[in-house]
Amino acid sequence: LNQYQGDQGSYDVFITKIDTNQSGSASLLYSTYLGGDEWEHGYGITADNNGVVYVTGYTQSTNFPTLNQYQGDQGDYDAFITNIDTNQSGSASLLYSTYLGGDERDYGRGIAADNNGVVYVTGYTQSTNFPTFNQYQRDQGSDDVFVTKISLYPIVTKIYITEISVTGEGGSVDNIHYKSEEGEDVKIFIYPEEGFEIDKIIDNGIEMSISNPYIISNIGEDHKVEIIFKKILYPPQLVLTGIRKTERAWIISKDYIEMKLDVIEHESPMATSAFILYKSEKGIWSEVKRYSTAGTYKYTEKYFKADESVSFKFSAMSPNGAIIAETNILTL
Q1: How far apart are the first and last CA of the chain?
Q2: Count of CA atoms in the C-beta half-sphere (13 A) of 286
Q3: All residues at 6 or more sequence positions from 236 whose CB lies less than 8 Å from its CB, including other chains
Q4: Cβ neighbours, 10 Å, residue 284
Q5: Secondary structure of the chain: what % helix, strand, coil (to 5)?
Q6: pTM exceeds 0.85, yes or no
Q7: Do 108 and 81 form a contact (C-beta atoms < 8 A)?
Q8: Which range, of 115-124, 129-138, 180-189, 196-205, averages the lowest pLDDT?
Q9: 8-state DSSP, 5
Q10: pLDDT digits over 262-271, tens only?
Q11: How far apart are CA 273 and CA 250, in angstroms?
């Protein structure tokens, strides 16, 4: 009834589904032959609540029915694993079928299945090359028991493409399209050009801490990462020179300092808002005055002593109030 196969000749496996609450012909719900043109014997069967059955045994046929198989015919007797949906009929009822074995005799004896399409088969083998993976033991000689776990259906995993974009000039990444599975982490390497550095990393709209390489975590659908570069700004080089001079007014003379502040800027200079003059007295520096530009400045004091040395320096201040450069110390 609703059979996948008819008689194949010689010995065939059969799979039959009976409703024991019915009688006569009403009790037969499904029944099929299973095999090729040589001998087959069925030894183990299990079923789930949906009427899907899992069968194992052994076959001598080279044309035992297969579908999405792990192996084809291995020669001699091979174990088989077959998955049948008894709610279907004909070829639609065969969901999966494979040979299992090596180059000698292999026999399937028992089978179990979970709810995820994974089956567990046991039996015994005379093959020295029976397929193994993560095995506890290899061939022990003579007849060995085998325990095999097989996923009958491919695990479907969502693959996402993470788009990596670079804003403006200044660098690149090693790949702009990353294929990854859902929830995976992806490591990207960022390559700033000479004179540039990473300014921001925007991961799905959130600005992240800068690191290189950068780890993209919890990949999901439509994941986007934006890399923004900026020019490296260099502080100016400040050079302070000066000379001590004497100024005479009638019969009174007074010493003063004439200082010159030169600024040598890089091609990508940091912005400056002020140049601050400091004077040192007894090793303690104090601010004297602020200037908006570099240039030549005259420093005098009412009680400037001619025989006393004095030290000066300038600092450059950025618009946000940070000191970004200092001159040499000028002592006169």
Answers
A1: 114
A2: 6
A3: 263, 264, 265, 266, 269, 270, 272, 316, 324, 325
A4: 8
A5: 0, 55, 45
A6: no
A7: yes
A8: 180-189
A9: B
A10: 988 887 788 8
A11: 40
pLDDT digits (tens, 9 = 90+) for 175-225: 666 666 666 778 888 889 888 899 999 988 889 999 988 888 877 777 888
Pairing of strands 28-34, 13-18: antiparallel
C-alpha 26, offset from chain centre:
57
Report yes or no: 210 and 227 within 8 Å, Cβ to Cβ.
no
Backbone angles phi, psi at 240, to 5 degrees: -115, 125
Give the distance from CA 58 to its chain's centroid. Answer: 44
Residue 209: helix, strand or coil by DSSP? coil
In angstroms, the CA 199 to CA 227 distance is 8
- The distance from CA 40 to its chain's CA centroid, rounded to whole angstroms, is 48
pLDDT tier, 29 (very low <50, low <70, confident <90, very high otherwise)? very high
Q: Long-range pairs for 253-257 at CB < 8 Å and ≥24 separation?
A: 254/300, 254/304, 255/300, 255/304, 255/305, 255/306, 256/298, 256/299, 256/300, 256/304, 257/298, 257/299, 257/300, 257/310, 257/312, 257/332
